[in-house]
Task: inverse folding
């Protein structure tokens, strides 16, 4: 489909960096929607303007974000949603690590029943200004009660898993902020979904070289 849309072999190689998890999943049909913007970001290091789009999924909404990746991006986006009283029902984050790109999808719900008209602009500004990840933001984090565990997923890559009650608002923001602040982790993928009984979040991350696995486990036990 991307070839038929006119993407060159070199451009397809960049987009393929998002991997089988993206192209084999439910969001692959959005590749053409965000592809040209992702390629512009990859080709121009000075371009840091994200593309934030509100997508319809039946009666529900998905916030799609194509952006230059940086450590703390997931916390910035989820923090922007939290501060606008937008609940995240599901989230799936993908990264093209070889090209420093992120393509993220947040299934959102507004308790008021309507989405703020300036939501996409506000999220885009938060991304560019790297908001909601400062040290002083920790005091205002929503509480997160649940069970956390950290395990090595692949050599040098880790998965933080968290299970919580289903009515825990702001959970993704809290977890991604703590990964950024206390583990100095770089998140390259995230999956979150809820059932009637619980919320399950899996955060896939790289730890900094100076942080041992034992120390990371200790911090998870103390901070999460």
Result:
């Amino acid at each position: 489909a991307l070839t038929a849309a006119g993407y060159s072999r070199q451009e397809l190689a960049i987009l393929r960096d998002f991997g089988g998890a993206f192209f084999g999943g439910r969001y692959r049909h959005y590749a053409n929607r965000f592809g040209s913007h992702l390629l512009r970001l990859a080709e121009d290091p000075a371009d840091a303007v994200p593309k934030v789009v509100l997508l319809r999924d039946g009666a529900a909404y998905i916030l799609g974000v194509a952006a230059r990746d940086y450590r703390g991006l997931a916390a910035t986006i989820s923090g922007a949603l939290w501060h606008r009283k937008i609940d995240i029902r599901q989230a799936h984050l993908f990264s093209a690590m070889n090209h420093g790109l992120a393509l993220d999808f947040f299934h959102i719900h507004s308790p008021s029943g309507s989405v703020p008209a300036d939501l996409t602009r506000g999220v885009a500004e938060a991304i560019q200004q790297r908001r909601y990840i400062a040290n002083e933001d920790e005091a205002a984090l929503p509480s997160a009660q649940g069970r956390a565990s950290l395990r090595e997923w692949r050599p040098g890559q880790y998965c933080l898993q968290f299970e919580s009650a289903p009515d825990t608002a702001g959970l993704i923001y809290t977890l991604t902020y703590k990964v950024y602040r206390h583990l100095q982790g770089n998140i390259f993928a995230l999956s979150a979904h809820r059932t009637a009984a619980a919320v399950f979040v899996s955060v896939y991350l790289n730890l900094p070289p100076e942080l041992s696995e034992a120390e990371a486990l200790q911090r998870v036990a103390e901070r999460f």
